[in-house]
Amino acid sequence: MATYSAQTDESALALLGRRMAAFRIRSNWTQAQLAEQAGVSKGTIERIERGDSVQVINLIKVLRVCGMLETFLAVFPDDSPSPMQILQMGKVKARKRVRSPRNNESDASAVTEKPGKYTASDTAPKAKRKHNTPWVWDEDK
After folding, report:
1. What are the DSSP calls for 38-72, one per residue?
2. Cα three-residue angle 73-76-81, rounded to 5 degrees
3. Residue 39 phi/psi, 5° resolution?
4. 4-47 pLDDT per residue, tens
5. Residue 131: which of 141, 120, 139, 115 has the closest Cα?
6. 15-43 b/e (C-beta count within 10 Å ≥ 16 → b)
7. How far apart are CA 45 and CA 29, in angstroms?
8. How high is the pLDDT of residue 97?
9. What is the pLDDT of residues 37-70, one digit of tens each?
10. Which residues are within 8 A (CB) of 119 and not within 5 positions of it... i.e. 6 or more apart?
């Protein structure tokens, strides 16, 4: 269902342009200064102030310099729940610990025996060890 306003699109653009021009003048900026700060052409500022159509990205650049971008963005407020609201709704699952994969005997046999170093049987879990010998290092000899 369409809603109608007494204001036309063209009159809304003209009003926006007049208000932006008044703001610029109150701030003691020339069109060239505002254009340079915003990174747009002077012609873009002229078009905005005349009420002509401009690219939205250029309007955003000018609004940012004028300190009005947040006000512009507030026209359509963010309606997604905040992180705190999500937590309160109980929709966030508790994080689980990350587990390392279990050691397989094939992994343990991949370790080669070196004199004075640990052996493959020492790297296996205690339940799978063939004998309970302590680790042997070169310094322990």
Report:
1. HTS-HHHHHHHHHT----HHHHHHHHHHHT-HHHH
2. 105
3. 80, 30
4. 666 898 999 999 999 999 999 999 999 999 999 999 999 999 99
5. 120
6. eebeebbeebeeeebebeebbeebebeee
7. 12
8. 76
9. 999 999 999 999 999 999 999 999 999 999 999 9
10. 111, 113
Q: Which amino acid is at 44?
A: T
Question: Do 32 and 42 form a contact (C-beta atoms < 8 A)?
Answer: yes
Q: Tell me the two tokens of residue 4.
A: 């109608």
Whole-number Å distance between alpha carbons of 50 and 21: 9
| Torsion angle defined by CA atoms of residues 84, 85, 87 and 91, in that order, rounded to the nearest 10 degrees | -150
Which amino acid is present at 139?
E
What single-letter DSSP state applies at residue 76?
Answer: S
- Cβ neighbours of residue 96 closer than 8 Å, sequence gap 6 or more: none
Interval 90-101: pLDDT, tens: 755 666 777 777
Task: Please report where in the chains the tokens 């309970």 appear, as a residue.
Answer: 132
19 vs 7, 10, 30, 81, CA distance in Å? 16, 14, 15, 34
